[in-house]
């Protein structure tokens, strides 16, 4: 009788062990640990970066009071750097950014007097702008931007170098206008983001006195530049 009782107890213990073992295996199979939480990106803070791309411009010579004009345009590579600060409020990001770019925009076309060539060149661009962005996701920031734009602009009216066309006119000025545009910035890591940005520089106009670009007339010059660049930022 004792042997039968011990056998029954052993059988019951074995069945319980098997049941608990299968339950534990089921828990291990169907109750995997939850995935780690998605990283939370905070856009508030300073950043610094670099950019490169292309630009194009349109330049106009308007000879006053003759009432004649000519224009030319150019395309070039652009590259430079930027620094700024962001402040995030919920899904909105406010910021300010300053940038500087080097370029080589240069072209020429016949002046109203076809014996002369009206040419221009731009060597650098800069801007100081505010930014207003909206986070479509925690990582994707769509933004608009606007502020002051600056550039050096150099103008030349050059003759063929034979009499009586011996006057060569030059006029250089730092143009101050506005810069507006927009872009998309995307956070690829905790401290890094990439961006694409389009800017329009309305550099306004200035007037060269008689004896600079024209021997007898004053000359009003106007410049506009459009840039498209790709950049990378490091966020502190």
Account of the 3D structure:
The chain has 236 residues and is mainly beta. The protein has 2 domains: 1-32; 45-235, Porin, CATH 2.40.160. The chain has 1 helix and 8 strands, in the order H-E-E-E-E-E-E-E-E. It has an 8-stranded antiparallel β-barrel with strand order 1-2-3-4-5-6-7-8. The longest helix has 29 residues, at 2-30. 28% of the residues are buried.
Supply Rg: 34 Å
Total strands: the figure is 8
Structural class: mainly beta
Share of residues in strands: over 45%
Dominant shape: elongated
Do you know the CATH architecture of the largest domain?
Beta Barrel
* Average pLDDT metric: 86
**How many domain regions?**
2
The helicity comes to 10-25%
**Euclidean distance between termini CA atoms:** 80 Å
CATH topology of the largest domain: Porin
Index terms:
mainly beta; 2 domains; Porin; 8 strands
Question: Can you describe this structure in just a few lines?
Answer:
With 236 residues, the protein is mainly β.
Write the layout of secondary structure elements.
Elements: H1 2-30, E1 45-64, E2 68-89, E3 92-110, E4 117-135, E5 140-158, E6 169-187, E7 192-208, E8 218-235
Antiparallel strand pairs: 1-2, 1-8, 2-3, 3-4, 4-5, 5-6, 6-7, 7-8
